[in-house]
Structure formats: structure tokens, C-alpha cells
């Protein structure tokens, strides 16, 4: 605490974790109980029972502490009764002092017991939280992709961010479930001793409200369930938007996606508002209950002919006060229980998924265990559905295959023939429906889209293995990465952003390959790694990595379209429609019916060139890789997450109030103050009543008069409570809607650079965790804060009015209180910020693991990732433990302070009753009122500060959201509106264009000047990183150019509004992008084209048959288009671009994942179907661009060669012909 006042807290200042709170021991405890449950009942294991076996007895034993604590709470009202009776009699002064001191003493004992109970429950909650988080994470590592397809990524992220917390809250609700009725029961019995059966009137009101509240809580539960479903969908869509933001910006679709997201948000808000308004009714019923209770009880008591006296009235009021808390808490307890059970059910469904089965050799009974066979498949059928799914869509169809050890096996076939699925089935990621698949245990795998970790280059290659410098350097050299690494800022310790955002596609593929080589596994499975690099690098990799010394005696399964790789393989497997059609050697392939895969579509000019087998020397590769674009050199180091210091600034509160509406904020304040005034008014009226009628007999008319006034106060109080509850619900909803809309708008309009520097997990944290706080818990805690504040204000005013001496106490009391809360708040704020910062890595690493779980399982690196996750959770636990102990430190001191006030009021009353003081303390009625008001000060002061601190902590969520409201925006505007048919010719002119990715980085394009006439098809070639993709970045204004200008049809694109510009061009991005939804929406989201034209384009792209077989245009595409192969996804993206009928079409490596035959068919489609369209193709395969009208050769961002491909091929010294010679693709 001292450090928190003196400086900004850091991780080393946090408390160490006790052994029993260590995440790994917590995990083992719950995991063993869950496994026991699973073994007993594998069809429907219960997570609740597992939690009970793990922590139930420790938790139940705390119940005893709670019983004692609750019982001591009732000593207060009983002692108060005795004290007021003593004051009325005015005799035996020693008894008065004993009673007064006892009153303070019980408060002190209760405060110590309270703190102990809270501490132990909170510790248990932390253990439970880390158990649940680690169990969910481990499940993600263990569940195969097919089995996981039952859940969307958004849903699984919600398990970790929301459901885990809700399940943990069960600890609070469960004991309260029996403790609150017990407290209510004892309070009612004590009321009976005071007012006999008159209390039944009050009870009747309460009992009548119970079914009403039950009905409301059922409605709340159903609204919550619907809201969570929409929330999952919104988080999934937000994740999709963030993951593909660059592509969406190129398409000009970001607004469309944000509109779809807003639709999901509005249906989420619809259920949220139902929930909030029902909550408001709950609050209203429970807040008016005490006032109605006192009105009915005292009314009936006097109508039964009894006379009210001070002792009866104020003991009853004290008992009503002890009733308020349990009655108010009860609906929240029920809601908390309902939420927890819904979440437990959701988690049970996920945790009971069957786990990833990897079929390794059974050494005893396998006929293949002699050691010369790598993979055996016997009549294997696999599909991508989960074990619970009824529909079967067989992808791997009755394959029988034996692959010997130590061979290079090329797996070939057209797009969508099942090549990637074959690798996945061997890895055990698919559901095996029939037959068997076995393979050697040690496997390394590089997927088609390599999975890149957020971390250093070295981390990505080592992947948890030990560092062996010789092997490491050999691996870098074999994968042509040594020079890339040498020019990166920081070498191999350079930081790679999330999903490898600051690497080129070729670098990502080579890092994936380096990881597989370094791993030294028995089998390497490479899914199309050569397509992402250019011809010369591909050849180097083939010679030095795939066929190099590092692969000695290893088996390599290579899915490829690369002709050279096929011809140099030991064995070729041809796939078609999920089946193996042919197996043999490359020489036999040339004379088989599948010889087309070896045919080269070279022009005659090239055939006349002597195609020598190129063996690039290391120096040539070095020359090649030095041509890195600035983007790749640009290590836009991921920015550390900002953490504000000091208090949450007043401006944050003002902005939140502005989001809710300033007028509404003012009216809420007014209604809260008026509500408290009417409450205090009714209590003062009661004390006036007992004092004026004391000793004199009441007439029926006077009783009626007193009752009517009391009734008026009661009606006023109820009305104002209702107004406050509904206004609060409305204001909170309005703020939540505005914060989300503002945040989304800012994120969508942010420049691409922002996304390169900010991990999407961090942005997603704002949209999931922080927004959940703003939606739900912030308005709730603010409401409590306001109620506590006006409650305290009311008490201070009444006590000062009744006991003048209390005014002298107010000043020192306020001084101590403010010192305490200042001391606490400076620490607690920092802890909450540390809490947010330690929570982000948990979600980031979780999201990252979800993306790469198949790679992690293939490398058998689960333990390494598990250990990293445990570290993140342990740090989070330390922050939470420190936060907890700080809040209990404060709560104990506050309760002791309040005990002192009670003792002070009680003792001065006793002294005053003897008439020894100059100031009169008024009547027993007022003294009773003062004492009954002093008693709840304990809880009010504590909850005021807790709610104040909690509000400040929850406000951190608003502060974090506002950080992203201030991010820079893209330049969206333009001074010149283009015509609807612009560009009509497609004439593109680059005039001295220079582009840098950062002020300190070398230019990616240097004074680039060229003209592409309208309708011309141009190929852009150059070695990896020559600046090819930078041309598109400049054309689409993804990065602003430093100098020069770009004209399209004579119009400077800088003057055209950026979204109009992007939507006027068609593009096929390097990474194919499909989103969850129907195929029709994926191809034509704006619904501008009729079905006939869509089918026509699909036919041109050779996809018509596959789409018809899969279910037509209404086919539902799963997340990221998992139901299609990468090649098919690229063809769908091409179909989408052709549907746009733009005069400018840009293709970025779009045939990389397509077999040579389909690629040549596509070339014909482009040349015939795109007549009159300007086509810019960036390609690694020379065959892709050899039929173009013109070639641009780039080097270091400079245009070094331009001309007709045939002429360039004939010139032996041209750059283009040297590329062609090196390439046999």
C-alpha cells in the first residue's frame, strides 16, 4: 500500500502467490475431478459436480463462519432495544454504559469476522477462476479441428472471457442462497417479539413480491441467454472484421461489415434492454419494500389498538435495515446463480468434446513396425464434422496408402481434390469415420497459411525447442532466411506482429518451413510451401531444405503444384475428389493419364532458351533476399499496451455522462436525492409521532392523521424509486450503445498502420471484456454508488439534526475517512490497471492458440504453450490477490471507524440522559432515530467506498475504450467526386512515386514512373520484397505516398474519396478471404448481381461443379471458409472480383495455391473474359504472366525493366529471361 502511494506499481511489487493458488496445482485439482466425472458418465459429465469435488468441502466449511457472522449481526438491534428502554426509564446509569460499549463491541467483532469470511471466499474464487481458465485452454490444445467445428471461435473466446467469470461468481451466490433466507427469518422472528402479529402485514407485502420477483428473474434469465448468444456472434464478427481488416479496406467493404456487426449489436442490445428494464422493476420492488413494510406494520399495530413507543419503533426500524440488505441482494443472488448455471452448462458442452486422437504405432501388433514405413492408411474415410454431427460430408474417401520412410512424396491434384485434408487426416485433425490411419509419432507440419506466433523470429523457429546454434544457422540458410534476418532491426530477435502482419507471404512460409526443419522430426508435412515464394527462392529451398542435408533419412509429404518438385520426388500421389487415383514415380507420371501435372505451359520463346538446372549459390540467394521491401524491414514493433497513471480523470466521467445524456444524468441525481429525502422524512415523522403521543392517549382521528402523512411519504418514495431505476437503466443502455458505435466507427476508419502495430487480441479485449463492463456492471455499480452516497448524506443530515455534538465529530471523521480512501484508491487504481494489462495476454495467447492449435498438436508442443499460458495466468492471479487484500485492508478499517461512531452516539446519549451536558439531546424518539441510523453506517460506509472504488475500477473500461476513440483516422475525404462509370478506360499512370512504411525506413518504391494504357494486361515480377505489393498499397491508398502522384483516367487518386476509389477497383488479395455466411453473400454482399451472372462467373473460374455439389449459392460457409481448400478460396475470390466488372483488376499472387492446369485455364479466362480491362498481376510463377501484354520488373522499389514478355525472353541478358531460366514452374 505504501508503494502504491509513492510510485506507479509494477509487477515486481505484487504479492507472491501461495503454493495452493498456483495455477498448475489448481488445474490438476479440477482436471482430475473432471476426468473422474468423465469416466463415470462419458455421455453427460457434469462440470458442477467436478467443481464440487474439487472445492466443495473447503467452500462449505466457510458456511459455519458465515452463520456466526450473521447471528452477531442481530445482536445490534437487540442491544439498541435495551438501550432505548433504558433511556426512556432513565435509571441505573452503569447498565447504560455497558449497553453502549457492547453496541460498539459487537460491531468490532463482526467487522473482523466479515473480513475473514470475505478473504477466504475470494481466495477460493481465484483458485476456481484459474482452474476453469486453464482447463478451457488445455481443452483447446486437445480438441481436433473437426470436433471443434461445433463451436464458433467467438463462442470459445466468450467461454474464457465471460463464462469463466460467471461460474466463479457462484461462490458468492451459493452461500447467500441459504444465508439470506436465514437472516430474513431471524429478523422476522425478532419483529414478532416487538409488534406481535402486526408484522404479518409487512411480511404479506414481501411474500406477495416473491413470485413477482421469481417471474421477473426467469424473464431476465431468458433475456440473458439470448443476449449471450448475440454477444458470441458479435465477438465472432468483430474478430472476423479485425482479422481481415486490410482485405476489407481494399474491397471497400469495411462499412458493410460494420453495418452487419451493428445489426448483431442491436439485437444484443434489445435483449440487454429487456434485461435492464426488468432489473429496474426488481430494484423498484426491493427498494420500496422496507418503506411499505414499515407503513403496513406500524399502521396495523396502531389500528390493533397498541400505542407506538420509541423502543418498539426504532428496534423495528433497525430490524428493517438489517432486512434491506438480504431483501435487496436476493434477486441478484438468484440472477447470479442462473447466470452461473447457464455458463456451467455451456462450459460442460465444450469440455465434453472428444479429444484429438493421434494414431501412432502400436509396436507389438503392427505389421509395419519394422521401421521402414512412415504412414499407413487402410480404407480410411474422414470428414470435417464433429462427432455429434448427423450430416456426413466425406472428404477423404476410402483411401488405402502406404508411404515408406525416407522418401520425398509429392501429393498432387487439382484445386479441392483433398490434398490438405489428406495431411490433416494423418495428423488426426479430421473425424475418422471408417478404416485406420497410423504414422510415426514425430511430425512437423507447415499449413498452407503458415501459423506465425506473436514474438521474435527465433521464438517462431525454435517453437519451444532448445537453441542449437549450428543447426539454427544451417536451418536459416537452407530456408534462405539468413539475409532476411540480418537486415531486420534486431536480427532474429526482431518482433513479429500478430499473425505475421509485418512479414511478406514468402517470409511467413519460409519461417514455417524453418520451424519444421529445425524440429528434426521423422515426417515433415509441407502444405504448398513453395507457392508463396518466387521461382529462384523455391528452387533454393527445394535443393537445400527439402532435399538438403537437414532432411537426411526423413520422410517428406509435400502438397504442391511445383513441377520441379514433382519431377524430383521419389513418389507421386495423385488425388481427385478425396480419393487416391494414382501412385507411382515421376517418370511413370509423365506417360500416365495425369501427365498434365508435369506439362509446362511455356511460350515457344522460352522453350528455345536453354533451361539449365539452376543451382543458386548462397551469394545469389543473399543478393535475392537483400531485395526486401521496406515493409519487411519495417519492424513496426508492437506497441506496449498503454497504461494510464494516477486517478481516472474527471474527463472520463464527463464523457461517460455525455454518452448517457447530460440531462438524464441530472434528472437521475435529482430523483435519487428526492427519494432519500422522502425516506428520511418518513422516519422523522415516525419519531415525531412517538414523541407527541407519548404518555397521552391517541384518538382515532389523530392516528388516521399520522398514518395518512406516513402514507404520503411512502407513495412519494415509491414513485421516485421507480423513476430513478428506469432512468438509470435507460441512461446506462444509451451510454453502452454510443460507446460501442463510437469505438467501432473509429476502429473501422483507422489506417492499416494502426492494425500492424496493435494485436487484434488487444482491440478485441475492448469489444468483449471492457464493453461487457460498460454494458452490464458499470451502470449497476454506479446505481449502487449513487444510492450509497445519498444514503450517507441522509444519515449525516439526520444525525447532525438530532445530536449537535455529532457535527464536531464530522470534521475529524471526514479527515480520517478521506486519508484512508486516498491511501487505498491510489493503490487499487494501479492494481486494476495492472489487472487489465495482465488480462490482455491471456486473451491474446488464447486467441493465438485457437488459430494455431493444429500446428501446436502436430509438433507436439502442447507443453510449451501450456507453460506459457500458466505464466500469464499466474501473473493475473498475483494482481487479483493483491487487489483483494488491498480492498479487505480498507474494509476492516472502515468498519472499525463506524463502530467508533456507534459507540460515540450511544455513550453521548447515556451521558445526555442524565442531564449532565449543556446541550439537550432531545427526546427518546430522536435518540432512537439517531442510534438506528448510526447502526447501518458500518455497511453504508464500506459499501460507499467499495462502490466508489469499484466504479473507478469499472471506469477503467471506459478509459480504455476512450484510448481508441482518439486514434488517427485514414484520410477518407477527397475534393473531387469521381463519375459513377470512373474508371472508364483503366489508364494508370505512376509519376515519380515514392512510398515509405515509416519515417526512418528506406523507401519501398523509389521515384517509380510508368504508364499502363487502358485494357492492357500487365505482369509485375521481381524477387521477394522488390516492392511488387507496394504498388497495390499505393494504388489502393492503404499507405500514403511520400511524393509523386498516381493518376487513373487522368484523375489524381489523392483527390478521390478513399472508399469510392477502392470500390471502383477489383482486387484478389494474397490471402483468400471468405467470411461466415451464404456463398451468395460472399460473392456479392451488396446483392447487385442476379444468379445467372454469378453461375456464369463460377463456371469461368472452374468452380461451378463443386459449388453445385456442395449445395448451390445458399451454401453456408463456415468461419474463414474452412469448407473449401485454399485454392478453391482463391478461385472464389477471383469470381468475386470478376463479378465487380471494374475496369481495373488487381491480382496479388492469386494463383499461388492453384495447380498448374487450373492456373493455365484461368489465364485463358482472364485473357478472354477481361478484354478491355486493365489487369495488374503480381506473380511468383513466370508462367502466370508470360501471356501478358507487358511485364514490369522491379528491384529495390525501382523499375529496372519493362516490355513485351516475348521480347524480354528472347534477350538473354534481360532480368526477365534470367527469372524464366531459373524457373521451371
From TrEMBL:
Sorted UniProt keywords: ATP-binding, Membrane, Nucleotide-binding, Repeat, Translocase, Transmembrane, Transmembrane helix, Transport
Localization terms from the record: Membrane
GO molecular function: ABC-type xenobiotic transporter activity; ATP binding; ATP hydrolysis activity
Primary enzyme class: translocase
Domain ABC transporter: 375-602, 988-1221
A UniProt-annotated Pfam family: ABC_tran
Annotated InterPro entries: AAA+_ATPase (IPR003593), ABC1_TM_dom (IPR011527), ABC1_TM_sf (IPR036640), ABC_transporter-like_ATP-bd (IPR003439), ABC_transporter-like_CS (IPR017871), ABC_transporter_C-like (IPR050173), P-loop_NTPase (IPR027417)
Catalytic reaction equation(s): ATP + H2O + xenobioticSide 1 = ADP + phosphate + xenobioticSide 2
Assigned GO CC terms: membrane
Enzyme Commission code(s) on record: 7.6.2.2
Chain ranges of the ABC transmembrane type-1 domain: 64-339, 666-953
Transmembrane intervals: 186-210, 280-304, 310-338, 656-677, 705-730, 780-799, 805-824, 894-913, 925-945
Family, per entry: Belongs to the ABC transporter superfamily. ABCC family. Conjugate transporter (TC 3.A.1.208) subfamily.
Protein name: ABC-type xenobiotic transporter
Amino acid at each position: 500500500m505504501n508503494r502504491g502511494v509513492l510510485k506507479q506499481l509494477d509487477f515486481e511489487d505484487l504479492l507472491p502467490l501461495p503454493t495452493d493458488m498456483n495455477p498448475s496445482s489448481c488445474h490438476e485439482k479440477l482436471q482430475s475431478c473432471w476426468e473422474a466425472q468423465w469416466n463415470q458418465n462419458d455421455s453427460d459429465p457434469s462440470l458442477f459436480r467436478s467443481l464440487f469435488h474439487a472445492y466443495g468441502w473447503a467452500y462449505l466449511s466457510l458456511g459455519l463462519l458465515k452463520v456466526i457472522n450473521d447471528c452477531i449481526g442481530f445482536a445490534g438491534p437487540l442491544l439498541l432495544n435495551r438501550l432505548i428502554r433504558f433511556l426512556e426509564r432513565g435509571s441505573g446509569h452503569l447498565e447504560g454504559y455497558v449497553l453502549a460499549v457492547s453496541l460498539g463491541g459487537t460491531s468490532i467483532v463482526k467487522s473482523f469476522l466479515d473480513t475473514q469470511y470475505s478473504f477466504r471466499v475470494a481466495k477460493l474464487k481465484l483458485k476456481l477462476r484459474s482452474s476453469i481458465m486453464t482447463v478451457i485452454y488445455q481443452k483447446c490444445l486437445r480438441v481436433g479441428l473437426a470436433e471443434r467445428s461445433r463451436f464458433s471461435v467467438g463462442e470459445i473466446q466468450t467461454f474464457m472471457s465471460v463464462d469463466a467469470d460467471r461460474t466463479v461468481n457462484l461462490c458468492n451466490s451459493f452461500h447467500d442462497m441459504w444465508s439470506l433466507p436465514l437472516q430474513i427469518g431471524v429478523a422476522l422472528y425478532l419483529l414478532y417479539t416487538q409488534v406481535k402479529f402486526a408484522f404479518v402485514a409487512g411480511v404479506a407485502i414481501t411474500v406477495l413480491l416473491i413470485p413477482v420477483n421469481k417471474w421477473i428473474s426467469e424473464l431476465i434469465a431468458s433475456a440473458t441467454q439470448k443476449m449471450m448468444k448475440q454477444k458470441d456472434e458479435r465477438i465472432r464478427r468483430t474478430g472476423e472484421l479485425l482479422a481481415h481488416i486490410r482485405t476489407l479496406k481494399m474491397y471497400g467493404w469495411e462499412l458493410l461489415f460494420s453495418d452487419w456487426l451493428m445489426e448483431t449489436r442491436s439485437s444484443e442490445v434489445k435483449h440487454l434492454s429487456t434485461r435492464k428494464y426488468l432489473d429496474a422493476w426488481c430494484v423498484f420492488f426491493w427498494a420500496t419494500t422496507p418503506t411499505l413494510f414499515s407503513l403496513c406494520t406500524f399502521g396495523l399495530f396502531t389500528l390493533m389498538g397498541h400505542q407506538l413507543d420509541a423502543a418498539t419503533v426504532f428496534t423495528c426500524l433497525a430490524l428493517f435495515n438489517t432486512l434491506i440488505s438480504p431483501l435487496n441482494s436476493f434477486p441478484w443472488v438468484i440472477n447470479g446463480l442462473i447466470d452461473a448455471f447457464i455458463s456451467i452448462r455451456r462450459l460442460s458442452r465444450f469440455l465434453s468434446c472428444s479429444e484429438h486422437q493421434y494414431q501412432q504405432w502400436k509396436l507389438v501388433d503392427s505389421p509395419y513396425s519394422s521401421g521402414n514405413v512412415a504412414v499407413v492408411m487402410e480404407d480410411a474415410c474422414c470428414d470435417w464434422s464433429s462427432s455429434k454431427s448427423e450430416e456426413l460430408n466425406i472428404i477423404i474417401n476410402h483411401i488405402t496408402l502406404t508411404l515408406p520412410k525416407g522418401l520425398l512424396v509429392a501429393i498432387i491434384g487439382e484445386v479441392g481434390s483433398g490434398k490438405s485434408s489428406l495431411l490433416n487426416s494423418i495428423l488426426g485433425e479430421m473425424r475418422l469415420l471408417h478404416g485406420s490411419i497410423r504414422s510415426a509419432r514425430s511430425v512437423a507440419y507447415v499449413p498452407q497459411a503458415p501459423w506465425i506466433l506473436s514474438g521474435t523470429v527465433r521464438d517462431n523457429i525454435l517453437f519451444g525447442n532448445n537453441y542449437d546454434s549450428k543447426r539454427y544457422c544451417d536451418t536459416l540458410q537452407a530456408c534462405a532466411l539468413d539475409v532476411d534476418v540480418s537486415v531486420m532491426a534486431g536480427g532474429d530477435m526482431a518482433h513479429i506482429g500478430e499473425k505475421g502482419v509485418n512479414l511478406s507471404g514468402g517470409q511467413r512460409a519460409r519461417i514455417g518451413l524453418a520451424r519444421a526443419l529445425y524440429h528434426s522430426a521423422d515426417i515433415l508435412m509441407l502444405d504448398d510451401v513453395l507457392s508463396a515464394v518466387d521461382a529462384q527462392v523455391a528452387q533454393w529451398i527445394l535443393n537445400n531444405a527439402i532435399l538438403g542435408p537437414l532432411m537426411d533419412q526423413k520422410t517428406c509429404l509435400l502438397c504442391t503444384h511445383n513441377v520441379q518438385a514433382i519431377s524430383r520426388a521419389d513418389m507421386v500421389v495423385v488425388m481427385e475428389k478425396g480419393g487416391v487415383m494414382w501412385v507411382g514415380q515421376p517418370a511413370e507420371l509423365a506417360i500416365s493419364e495425369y501427365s498434365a501435372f508435369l506439362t509446362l505451359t511455356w511460350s515457344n520463346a522460352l522453350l528455345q532458351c536453354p533451361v539449365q538446372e539452376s543451382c543458386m549459390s548462397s551469394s545469389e540467394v543473399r543478393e535475392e533476399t537483400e531485395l526486401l521491401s521496406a515493409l519487411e524491414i519495417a519492424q513496426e514493433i508492437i506497441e506496449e499496451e498503454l497504461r494510464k497513471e494516477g486517478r481516472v480523470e474527471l474527463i472520463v466521467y464527463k464523457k461517460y455522462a455525455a454518452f448517457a445524456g447530460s440531462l438524464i444524468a441530472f434528472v437521475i441525481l435529482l430523483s435519487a436525492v428526492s427519494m432519500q429525502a422522502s425516506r428520511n422524512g418518513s422516519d422523522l415523522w415516525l419519531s415525531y409521532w412517538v414523541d407527541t403521543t407519548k404518555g397521552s392517549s391517541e384518538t382515532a382521528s389523530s392516528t388516521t392523521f399520522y398514518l395518512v402523512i406516513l402514507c404520503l411519504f411512502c407513495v412519494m418514495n415509491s414513485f421516485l424509486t421507480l423513476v430513478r431505476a428506469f432512468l438509470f437503466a435507460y441512461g446506462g443502455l444509451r451510454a453502452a450503445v454510443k460507446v460501442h458505435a463510437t469505438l467501432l466507427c473509429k476502429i473501422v476508419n483507422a489506417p492499416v498502420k494502426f492494425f500492424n502495430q496493435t494485436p487484434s487480441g488487444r482491440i478485441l479485449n475492448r469489444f468483449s471484456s471492457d464493453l461487457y463492463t460498460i454494458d452490464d456492471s458499470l451502470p449497476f455499480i454506479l446505481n449502487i454508488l449513487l444510492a450509497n452516497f445519498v444514503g450517507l448524506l441522509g444519515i449525516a443530515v439526520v444525525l447532525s439534526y438530532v445530536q449537535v455534538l455529532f457535527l464536531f465529530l464530522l470534521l475529524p471523521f471526514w479527515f480520517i475517512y478521506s486519508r484512508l480512501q486516498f491511501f487505498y484508491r491510489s493503490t487499487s487504481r494501479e492494481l486494476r490497471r495492472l489487472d487489465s494489462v495482465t488480462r490482455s495476454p491471456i486473451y491474446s495467447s488464447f486467441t493465438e492458440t485457437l488459430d494455431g492449435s493444429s500446428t501446436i498438436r502436430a509438433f507436439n508442443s502442447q507443453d510449451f504453450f501450456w507453460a506459457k499460458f500458466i505464466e500469464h495466468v499466474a501473473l493475473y492471479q498475483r494482481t487479483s490477490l493483491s487487489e483483494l487484500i488491498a480492498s479487505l485492508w480498507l474494509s476492516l478499517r472502515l468498519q472499525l471507524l463506524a463502530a467508533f461512531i456507534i459507540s460515540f452516539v450511544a455513550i453521548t446519549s447515556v451521558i445526555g440522559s442524565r442531564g449532565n451536558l449543556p446541550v439537550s439531546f432531545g427526546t427518546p424518539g430522536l435518540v432512537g432515530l439517531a442510534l438506528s441510523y448510526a447502526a447501518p453506517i458500518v455497511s453504508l460506509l464500506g459499501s460507499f467506498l467499495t462502490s466508489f472504488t469499484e466504479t473507478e475500477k469499472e471506469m477503467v473500461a471506459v478509459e480504455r475504450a476512450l484510448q481508441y476513440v482518439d486514434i488517427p483516422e485514414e484520410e477518407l475525404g477527397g475534393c473531387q467526386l469521381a463519375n459513377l462509370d470512373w474508371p472508364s478506360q483503366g489508364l494508370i499512370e505512376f509519376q515519380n512515386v515514392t512510398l515509405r512504411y515509416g519515417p526512418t525506413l528506406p523507401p519501398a518504391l523509389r521515384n517509380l514512373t510508368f504508364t499502363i494504357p487502358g485494357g492492357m494486361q500487365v505482369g509485375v515480377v521481381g524477387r521477394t520484397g522488390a516492392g511488387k505489393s507496394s504498388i497495390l498499397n499505393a494504388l489502393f491508398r492503404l499507405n500514403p505516398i511520400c511524393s509523386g502522384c498516381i493518376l487513373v483516367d487522368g484523375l489524381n487518386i489523392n483527390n478521390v474519396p478513399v472508399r469510392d476509389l477502392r470500390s471502383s477497383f477489383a482486387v484478389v488479395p494474397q490471402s483468400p478471404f471468405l467470411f461466415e455466411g451464404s456463398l451468395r453473400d460472399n460473392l456479392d454482399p451488396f446483392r447487385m448481381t442476379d444468379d445467372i451472372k454469378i453461375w456464369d462467373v463460377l463456371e469461368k473460374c472452374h468452380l461451378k461443379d463443386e459449388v453445385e455439389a456442395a449445395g448451390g449459392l445458399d451454401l453456408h460457409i463456415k468461419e474463414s471458409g474452412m469448407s473449401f481448400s485454399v485454392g478453391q478460396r482463391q478461385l472464389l475470390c477471383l469470381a468475386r472480383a470478376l463479378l465487380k466488372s471494374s475496369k481495373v483488376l488487381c491480382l496479388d499472387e492469386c494463383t499461388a495455391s492453384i495447380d498448374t492446369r487450373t492456373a493455365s485455364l484461368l489465364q485463358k479466362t482472364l485473357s478472354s473474359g477481361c478484354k478491355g480491362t486493365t489487369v495488374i498481376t503480381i506473380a511468383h510463377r513466370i508462367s502466370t504472366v508470360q501471356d501478358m501484354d507487358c511485364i514490369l520488373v522491379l528491384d529495390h522499389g525501382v523499375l529496372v525493366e519493362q516490355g513485351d514478355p516475348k521480347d524480354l525472353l528472347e534477350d538473354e541478358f534481360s532480368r526477365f529471361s534470367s527469372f524464366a531460366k531459373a524457373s521451371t514452374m
